[in-house]
Amino acid sequence: MPVQSLAKKIPILMYHSISDQATPAYRPFAVPPALFAQQMEYLHQQNYTPLTVTQFMEIRAAGKQTLPAKPVLLTFDDGLEDFYTGAFPLLRRYGFPATLYVVTGFMHKTSRWLKEDGEGERPMMTWEQLATVQAGGIECGGHTHSHPQLDTMPFTQARAEIVLCKKLLEEHLGRKVSSFAYPYGYHTAAMKQAVRAAGYTSACAVKYEMCSEITDPFALKRLLVGPATDIPALSALLDTKHTSALTGIYKSARVPVWRMVRRAKAPASRPLPEQL
Hints:
- Helices cover 37% and strands 17% of the residues.
- The longest helix is centred in the C-terminal third of the chain and has 21 residues, at 243-263.
- The protein is of the alpha/beta class.
- Helix 1 (33-45) runs parallel beside helix 3 (81-94) and helix 5 runs parallel beside helix 6.
């Protein structure tokens, strides 16, 4: 297989919901199933090689190894049931691994943290479904217990969110959990240290930029995929030859959306419950 240097830019794509239905506030984060199918077919036809986040980190750590010629990391935040029904079957069809970041406090329930967006009733996955996707090649990572803005919380509460999430995932799945994703992408140096101390080996932010060999392993950069990411837009996102110009334009378009989401979320200040 042709290879390329780890110094090359690596796209980490970030998904949330795979659904035709979304309120106006949540629409930027919902990819229609038909479009998602086209995106996966494109990756297959163009000979991209998906990796999990931890596979990528292991290659980086090995030093002497090199990545596939066309690597891509597929990440999905939250653990919504439509990952199981809308994304997982297609990932299995193509043999694509991916990393799913799970909010443990709402398993078997609904996405209550999205209430302000009118999306508080989106079904979440069950622990049984999570075990099924893990057995099917999906890496399950931590995304906190209740999806708060970690950088706005007292440190002890934020640390509890990070630690409890990992503990529950490992208890239910019977496997070490190595990767984490910050809710809304926001974090601080203290949050990065807390994630490292909890035993994770990597953490994803957002950044709207390509990742690379020198990217901080606890602030991995990702590119948001949304309902407007048709095949020409996806092709542009994956084009590492024009990274600077592309991500500059993309970031300027997407950051206001993310800021709007952030403003809508009130900082958490309550003690962390064992189960929400």
